[in-house]
Structure formats: C-alpha cells, structure tokens
Design a protein that fits this description.
Pfam families: WbqC (PF08889). InterPro entries: WbqC. This protein has 215 residues and is an alpha/beta fold. It is built from eight helices and six strands; from the N terminus they run βαβββαααββαααα.
Length: 215
C-alpha cells in the first residue's frame, strides 16, 4: 500500500493505521491551508470526555488562499504548555504515559513557527514511540486526485468533520468506566493505554472500507 496523506498534528488512530500500513508515504505539502481540520488539532480523552487541543494559526491579513506549508503558528500565548498540561492530566494514570513521557516532552517545550515543521515533528515522535520509521517523501505539486496513480489518496483523513469509514475495536481507556469507550481520538490515547501493543492494533485494522471510499 502506498498513500498520500496530510501531515497532521498527532494524528488520529485511523490516520496512523494508514501510515503504519503504508509501504511508502507521500506527505501533501502543496495544498491550501484549511481551517477546522486535523492539520492543527487533535482530540484526547479526559475525565470530562472528548477534548479538543487546537494550535493557533497566525492570520496574515493578505486575503486569498494560504498554502499549508506557509501556515505560521501564533506564539502570543503559551498554547504548548496548555496542551502538555492537558495531556498530563488526562493520561498520567494511564499504563504507559510515564514510559513515553521523555520522548514526548521535548516537542511541547520547543517553539515551532511553522505548522508543517511541527506536524512532521509530531509524526516522527509517533514513529519513534511505535518503533517504526516508514519511507516518506513530500509532494512536489498539488494534484486534484490520484485516480491514475499507484498511491491511495487518503488526504480526506485530515478532514475533522468526516464520517469515520472504519470501525475501531474497543481498547482499554483511562476514563472508560465513566464515559464509555470514545473512538477516533489521537493515537496518543491508544499508545498511552496499550503501549507496545499499539502497533499490532494499528496493523490489524481493516482499512478496506476507507480505500473503497477514498476521495
């Protein structure tokens, strides 16, 4: 399987499964930036349910379309500290948070100006936590579709409003007794709860429904 995907911020479980199961990955870096997408957000599971963690993006004021590669992060307030604190509060009692904490901590304490650079760093962090290093390249130009390509077009996975195409089997979660099982969170939720078992979970997900409905 070869896939073209957006490099997003600590991707959800389905996106990560597509990354894990792909022999080759092409990151879409030539598209126009879109609001309300996983490019600058992730969802985690907390005692109060699903929580959105959003990266603030600078408004250029120039009008027109802005390339995702040109999107700059607004650093006028300490959003990284807020995200890190939220993760610690949500997952400090999970089975594997302390195991991965040292790998994750530096990313939330290093300032990034470029959203693309931050997202790639978050993906690299996930790969290290999973113990993999997939082959990845960047797109050289924007294509409307990949119908005649060997690559599966999975860029729709960056759409935060999409309807999930794949059923996620239940796995243990920190606040499941209170909230029930919450699917389609950031893969960090899976990793903190399953640890080394996460890779098997991701490899076992059946992505055929997603591939059959690719945009």
């Amino acid at each position: 399987m070869k896939s073209v995907l957006h490099p997003v911020y600590f991707p959800d479980i389905l996106t990560t499964a597509a990354l894990v199961q792909s022999e080759q990955i092409m990151y879409e870096v030539c598209d126009n930036y879109q609001k309300q997408s996983y490019r600058n957000r992730m969802y985690i599971g907390t005692a109060n349910g699903r929580l959105l963690l959003n990266i603030p993006i600078k408004h250029t004021g120039t009008g027109g379309h802005k390339k995702t590669a040109d999107a700059q992060i607004e650093q006028s307030f300490l959003w990284q500290r807020q995200h890190w604190r939220s993760l610690v509060i949500a997952y400090r009692t999970s089975p594997f948070f302390e195991f991965y904490e040292d790998e994750l901590h530096p990313l939330f304490h290093t300032e990034f100006d470029s959203l693309l650079n931050l997202n790639k760093a978050s993906l690299h962090c996930i790969y290290e936590m999973l113990g993999i290093m997939p082959e990845a390249t960047d797109t050289k130009e924007y294509k409307m579709n990949y119908e005649d390509s060997e690559y599966d077009d999975l860029r729709v996975l960056a759409d935060a409003k999409r309807k999930p195409e794949v059923h996620l089997p239940r796995y243990r979660q920190v606040f499941e007794e209170k909230n029930g099982f919450i699917p389609h969170l950031s893969v960090l939720d899976l990793i903190f709860n399953l640890g080394p078992e996460s890779l098997s979970y991701l490899n076992d997900l059946d992505l055929k429904p997603l591939l059959n409905s690719k945009a």
